[in-house]
Amino acid sequence: MQNYYLNNVSKIDSGKSFRHRIESVPNGECLVIQMKNISSDHSSIVGEPQSIRLDGISHSQLLGNGDILFMAKGNRNFATLYQSDQPAIAVSLFFIIRPDRAKVLPEYLTWFLNSSKAQGYFEQRRLGVTIGNIRKDALAQLEVELPDMKKQKQIAELNNLMRTEKYLTQEYLEKKEVFLNQTMINLIK
Description:
The protein is of the alpha+beta class. The chain has a single domain (about 1-145), classed as DNA methylase specificity domains (Adenine-n6-DNA-methyltransferase TaqI, Chain A, domain 2, Alpha-Beta Complex). The protein contains five helices and nine strands; from the N terminus they run βαβββββββαααβα. The protein has helices at about 5-10, 105-115, 115-125, 135-140, 150-189; strands spanning about 1-5, 10-15, 30-35, 50, 70, 80, 90, 95-100, 145. A four-stranded antiparallel beta sheet has the order 2-8-5-6. Strands 4-3-7 form a three-stranded mixed beta sheet, with no helix packed on it. Strands 1-9 form a two-stranded antiparallel sheet. Strand 5 and strand 6 form a beta hairpin.
């Protein structure tokens, strides 16, 4: 296993800064990913992101399938994998991490950024008293442990299975609660 700085295995860009409130445009071709569009477990894009026209959007700002959104602002600095070919941009709350796929799998890197080791690193480097902030240079200097591609794939698959199991378990518990509550109501009758 080798260690690399994040900026040696990926390119890091800033999200798009908007000077005004984002207004959704009917038939807009480009999604705008904001904090409210990230699932509670940070694993996916949810809801219906606002859409805007591509006019005035630099091609370099568009997200690609496999780019990672890193929440740089706030006291929870997490990573979410963008898995779509739909044209989209992320707001400036995020850094966009574009993995060098010859060195690192996006799914593995997303897992690593959310791991306790990386989160400890961010905790030590978070600036700001009320609202935390991770600077780009601090993110770039994160040491990433890179096993070979086969092990990266195994870790990514295990992480995906764990998330699926967590989701299914939660769904099961919710249905069981509804069933048991209905059973108790029927016992009263």
